[in-house]
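hiii, so i know i said id send this last week but things got crazy w the move. better late than never?? heres the sequnce for the chain we talked about at the cafe, plus the structure i predicted for it. fair warning i was half asleep when i ran it
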Amino acid sequence: MTDVVNKIDPVKLGKIANVLKVIAHPVRLEVIELLLQKKELTVGEIRDRLDIEQSLLSHHLTKMKDKGVLVSTRQGKHVIYEVAIEEISTIFECMSHCNL
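okay and structure toks below
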């Protein structure tokens, strides 16, 4: 295992660690999982599917967007979110095999 870690550039490891820190929250993981399934959703669609308060959802979406995990576009009155880092789907694939 040590050989694998040593082959990853320290700068890249820092970026990976930052992404993992940002997504390490149950609500954020749920949001990302939803977006990986649906590709893009409005804030209202995410809120309805997760059944959480708009203010709490906005907090999590803003945090993930600020850290580059999500991107958003505005279409009229709606803000549409999608996952910005394609490799996050690999993290979710690995997590699906965990026996916790």
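btw DSSP finds six helices and three strands in the chain. thought thatd interest u
miss u guys!!
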